[in-house]
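Lab meeting notes turned into a lecture example. A postdoc, R.K., suggested we walk through two folding results consecutively so the class can see how the record format repeats. The first protein's sequence and structure tokens come next.
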Amino acid sequence: VLIYLGIAVAWFVLAASVRVRTFEMEGSLKGRVAALWGDTQEQVSPQLTFSWQEAVERTEQVVEGGVKRNVTTSSVVTRERPVLLDGSSITADLSLAHRRKGLLWYATYVVGFRADYRYVHREAEAGELILTYRFPTNHATYDDFRFEVAGNAGPKLLPVDSERCKMVQVRVPVALGGTVPFSIAYTSRGLDWWRYSFGPDVN
């Protein structure tokens, strides 16, 4: 009986030590998995901004030779304001693909994302629609990335750095009543979860 109890205690101590060491390493192991495979992802809806030019007159009083007179100057300024999408159709095809690191298994996935959007210009002024797309995270790859406006993909569309992640921008001329359809698609890999956000202006 004593031998049995001794063996049981030894196995218990061994199991506890392995468990403690494993979970002490979990943070660093998870970071390695994210670096090799891809991190958690939150895809945010594209940001739309309407930009137009406006003629502005400014009158100021000047003094010349002791005489005061009003001088009016004209200039053209650029105005901007955010606008909202009129429609969106979003598809995310998620495939679970567990990966093992050390003694732990991690929930990794492959996601095929495609979204079709539509904007209708209802502003009286003509100008440009600025489409800003932000990638979910810098710690992932995006294969077969496409950004199409009215069925046309930009051949020289290169991501640029922003505050939190890379982004791409496209400018499209718009006039009253015009419709701008555009789509975004990619295949990526991530860890734990993937979700879509419609942005802070949408409930």
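The second example is placed directly after the first for contrast:
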Amino acid sequence: TTFKGHQHQIIGAKELEDGTIVSWSETSLRIWGEKGNCLVVLTQLAPLIRGFNELQDGNIVTWATDETLRIWNRKGECLKILEGHLGAIEGVTVLKNENILSWSNDKTLKMWNKKGECLTTFKGHQHQIIGAKELEDGTIVSWSNDKTMRVWGECAKTVQLFHFTTEFLNVLNAGSNLVINNEDFLLSDLFYGLKPLFSGNQY
């Protein structure tokens, strides 16, 4: 099957829970049928879409360089615009409690509910945040170009702060997966396997 319709370079594609394919370019996001037919085109999108995630209720959240997130239904209708970040949004993950966690080059993370209300802002990083992850117990971990990883506790306070080297920062920026088991922070690298991210340097 060939999927045709985008007018600009395709940035990424992803399969939803029901097997539907979604792809996005800088200016549009398309939902495709199994035969390659375009079911929905999301319009009124901001310039330079960074990505999207599927919410538990089947809706879609997108993020872009205009500092906003947008929640859409499967009909292509924009239900809510989430505003509050002061820089391009770098990533979004959906938490187990159905809240939305976003991070930005404004050095903050924000937690939103499904209604689009900002519940919490996490402050502490000194540079662009490049990734975040929810642990099994619900704890939030984030890492940044300031060469630190922060483990966040209640009231968005940093409860643990780790420093790492430029080498590991480069590997993280290259897209390697961070594997966290209990208190073990390991970096999964395609060529070298699992490597310790920290050597006990905790501050």
